[in-house]
Design a protein that fits this description.
The chain is an alpha+beta fold. Among the domains are: 103-206; 332-480, no CATH class. The chain has helices spanning 2-11, 13-39, 104-151, 159-206, 335-339, 362-372, 376-395, 402-416, 419-430; strands at 44-49, 51-74, 79-84, 91-92, 97-101, 208-210, 215-220, 227-228, 236-254, 266-271, 279-293, 296-306, 317-334, 434-441, 447-457, 461-467, 474-480. The strands form three sheets. A six-stranded antiparallel beta barrel has the order 2-9-12-11-10-13. Strands 6-5-3-8 form a four-stranded antiparallel beta sheet.
């Protein structure tokens, strides 16, 4: 029978191959079961080495490229556009003629106003002559009165004749006053006509639209022959950007990041037109006016930058990175090690990556209690209320709004701390130092917890500014637990 079995397999090679495959499968299954039975309780840690190197902390956002100064040039007059002397991208200088409104109507008004002024001037001359005539008549009447008065009754002057001379003298005085008043009125009329003439001349000058600044025309809104109406507001004819060799970016920064953005912070940005090129700028100012959209509060940050060869155009979208802190050489650990928690470790109800100023877990609250000198009763109140705060958000099955949660946390601390402790806590809040936890792999292969103080952070590393951690130690970044 052995011979027949050997002949059966040798005579049919495919049967021999199939038997070999079955044997290999059985061996693999047995080895897998044996390995799984002993690997269910073994954890394999992935580690990274704590080293020294640069850490650059930044805030990422976006914004629009704008000219530093943009002036809208309009027309204060209504009329037909007769000529245009500038177009899109035209470089203009201050005072340069860029457009003209049909001046015929306004030239006519100037001529009419000048004629009215001349008439008023002639009338003033007539009134002045009348004053001179009234004065002469007044002098004659006074002479007659004095002569008759000197003769008196002895000279044969009747009383009625003397009274008539006196009345004529008084009438001459009244004529002088009237002539003077008419002269003043005529002089005022001359000034009025002169003002009207100046207004007409100003309107005539305004038919020539001139550039108020040195710059580049980035918008032209009219064409030759178009009629503009300036009844309610000045229609915009041109928009001129001043010196496009310097530009600004208006970037919106979230309220959670705005506290670290300061004037003169270094900025790098790029635009889609030049994806492989980085441009440099600096923060000029942070506008205090907030913008709220769908419960998200942002602040506008103005960034100034040079525009080499004027290759950046107004309206481009810039991807901005604001450098809020940098260390050239510092002790640092991978960000994954800061977030790592071993399986089975009791996570604090307030855990969240090491909140600023002790807003994190129970261990962080203990450290904060020592820093601020809290009593045991204060510490207990903080532990309880913070646990309720975070547990409440989890029970609703949704993440708390960051801004709302921060306000509620500040309210809790303010109600528990004294005035002095609250000032110290706010100082810690404004500082860049946070607390956190890392896990180090010991020589025995066990995970050991270390408390550290954290500084700046970037996309890959976090600065270690204090705590029980030194360069060269292996920190755990992840844990692999095979399924049993």
């Amino acid at each position: 029978m052995a011979t027949s079995l050997k002949e059966r397999f040798l005579g049919h090679p495919w049967r021999l191959a199939a038997a070999a495959v079955v044997i290999l499968i059985l061996v693999f299954v047995l080895l897998s079961r044996n390995g799984a039975s002993g690997a269910g309780t073994i954890s394999a840690y992935e580690t990274a080495v704590v080293d020294s190197g640069p850490v650059t902390q930044s805030v990422a956002t976006s914004g629009s490229v704008r000219p530093l100064v943009t002036v809208q040039v309009g027309s204060e007059l209504s009329g037909r556009v007769e000529e245009l002397f500038a177009d899109f991208n035209s470089e203009v200088t201050a005072g340069e003629l860029i457009a003209r409104i049909d001046p015929q109507t306004f030239r006519t008004r100037v001529e009419a106003a000048r004629a009215e002024r001349d008439v008023a001037s002639a009338t003033l001359d007539v009134r002045k002559a009348e004053v001179d005539r009234a004065r002469a008549l007044h002098a004659q009447r006074k002479s007659d009165l004095d002569r008759l008065t000197g003769l008196g009754p002895e000279g044969g002057v009747a009383a009625i004749e003397l009274d008539a001379a006196r009345a004529q003298f008084q009438a001459a005085e009244a004529d002088i006053k009237a002539a003077r008043a008419q002269t003043v009125n005529a002089a005022a009329l001359v000034k009025q006509r002169e003002a009207a003439l100046k207004q007409a001349e100003v309107d005539f000058e305004r038919t020539e639209i001139r550039s108020p600044i040195n710059g580049v025309v980035i918008l032209r809104s009219v064409d030759v022959g178009q009629t503009v109406a300036a009844s309610l507001q000045a229609p915009v004819l041109f928009e001129i950007a001043q010196d496009l060799s310097l530009i600004q970016i208006e970037a919106d920064v979230n309220e959670a990041d705005i506290g670290s953005v300061k004037k003169d912070n270094r900025v790098t940005f790029s635009v889609d037109a030049y994806p492989d090129r980085k441009f440099l700028g600096r923060v000029e100012t942070v506008r205090l006016s907030p913008t709220e959209l769908q419960n998200v509060v942002t602040y506008t940050v103005i960034i100034h930058a040079k525009n080499p060869n004027k290759i950046l155009y107004p309206g481009m979208t810039a991807t901005v990175e604001i450098v809020t802190g940098a260390r050239e050489e510092t002790l640092r650990a991978p960000n994954a090690s800061i977030r790592f928690r071993p399986a089975g470790a009791e996570a604090s109800a307030a855990a969240g990556g090491g909140g600023r100023g002790g807003r994190g877990g129970g261990g962080q609250l203990d450290e904060l209690a020592k820093t601020l000198g809290l009593s045991s009763e204060q510490s207990a109140q903080l532990q309880t209320r913070m646990r309720e705060l975070f547990a409440g958000g989890q029970s609703r099955g949704q993440a708390n709004n960051t801004g709302d949660r921060r306000k509620r946390m500040e309210s809790i601390f303010k109600s528990v701390l004294t005035d002095v402790q609250w000032e110290q806590y706010q100082t810690l809040q404004r500082s860049n130092v946070r607390t956190g936890t890392v896990w180090v792999l010991t020589d025995e292969g066990k995970a050991e917890q270390r408390r550290v103080r954290l500084g700046l952070t970037d996309n890959t590393h976090t600065e270690i500014v204090g705590g029980d951690l030194v360069a060269g130690e292996a920190v755990i970044v992840s844990e692999n637990r095979p399924a049993s």
